[in-house]
Amino acid sequence: MPLHMTKIAYSSKSIEALREWVEAEDEAHMRTRYLPKRHAEMIGGSLYWIMDHAVVARCEILGFAQRPDGHWTIRLQPRLILVEPKHKRAHQGWRYLQDRDAPRDLEDGEVPGDAIPGRLAGRLTKLGLI
Fold first, then answer.
1. At residue 114, does pLDDT exceed 50?
2. CATH tag, 4-126
3. pTM score, two decimals?
């Protein structure tokens, strides 16, 4: 089972803007300062995108490549897959995500429905209400 990672989609204002960026080329490239220590386990896994304190979509990780400036490129499949929104606190950089903790993919034509916004879900969880 491959390992996944989470990353905040900080430069995207919407899922559609993220989709346009990811699907614009034959391969999407995400720049990161450091190579994940467990990078070999992540090939074939996914990069899960966080927006408004919720994991909302994912892209398959194709591999990693070092850049001339010493940073690294995460090579991504140019296909954005929507997932069932799941509350996730904001963080800097990326974090590992085990397969058992990853949200399920939405089926074609399925919409998230009346999902609770990420921040509200986090507060309700802290209160023990969900």
1. no
2. 2.30.130
3. 0.83
